[in-house]
UniProtKB/TrEMBL annotation:
Record organism: Agrococcus baldri
SUPFAM superfamilies, A to Z: FMN-dependent nitroreductase-like
Parts of the chain that traverse the membrane: none
Domain Nitroreductase: 27-74
Similarity remark: Belongs to the nitroreductase family.
Annotated protein name in UniProt: Nitroreductase
Keywords: Oxidoreductase
Annotated Gene3D superfamilies: NADH Oxidase (3.40.109.10)
A molecular function (GO) term: oxidoreductase activity
Secreted as UniProt keyword: no
Length: 194
């Protein structure tokens, strides 16, 4: 019988029945408890990050782990929607070398993989983007990234404060599957061709 979901573990694959639920339900956290994140957990996330795939295996990234609250508060002030970084237990700021679709794709793969790894450790996470050149220059100055590395984003981490809303409703829903998927040809909404 074929497994419904599987994790690749070296040469082994084994069923992971909870994985689909985790993948489907993972949401961005933006409000956190003051509880720190264990160093061992951060190391696990970084190890997962390290194994992220990238175009031609270029691994075009450098990650800075920021645990000082003052530094995270400063980062919170740099972007347009990065304010929640002021309340994280830690952030991982990701800078990439080069530009274009391939590098952006690799950056996104790493971010999402770290967020999933955080969920596997019971840690909430949210991505934040330093979308302007001015914001990225401030991040570079604060953390000392070299000039050839662009710090586009940060992953905020912490134990989610479940007593608070994590996002506004308009940022939280999803389109219906029929709106985003076709079968065989654009606009065909079911596998039977109807
Ligand atoms: C490229 C990109 C940039 C993002 N930047 C921010 C950001 O700066 N601040 C933020 O709060 N969320 C940011 N997000 C997260 C999205 O807002 C979030 O994934 C979306 O609203 C879904 O939220 P949910 O997981 O709560 O449903 C970003 C996501 C992407 C893909």
């Amino acid at each position: 019988m074929r497994p419904q979901a599987a994790v690749h573990d070296g040469a082994m694959t084994k069923p992971a029945p909870d994985l689909l639920d985790t993948l489907r339900s993972l949401r961005q956290s933006r409000r956190f408890l003051p509880t720190p994140i264990a160093h061992e957990d951060l190391e696990q996330l970084l190890e997962v990050a390290r194994w992220t795939g990238s175009a031609k295996n270029t691994q075009p990234w450098h990650l800075i782990v920021v645990t000082e609250p003052e530094a995270n508060t400063a980062l919170a002030g740099y972007g347009d929607f990065t304010d929640f970084l002021a309340g994280v237990a830690a952030s991982i700021v990701v800078a990439v070398e080069g530009e274009g679709r391939s590098v952006a794709f690799d950056d996104g793969r790493l971010q999402e993989r770290v967020m999933l790894a955080a969920a596997a450790r019971g840690i909430g996470s949210g991505t934040a983007w330093f979308s302007s050149g001015t914001a990225r220059r401030k991040v570079r100055d604060l953390l000392g990234f070299p000039s050839h590395m662009e710090p586009w984003s940060a992953i905020g981490l912490g134990h989610t404060d479940t007593s608070q809303a994590q996002a506004s409703p308009q940022l939280s829903g999803r389109k219906a599957v029929e709106e985003i998927v076709s079968w065989g040809r654009y606009g065909v909404v079911s596998p039977s061709g109807e």
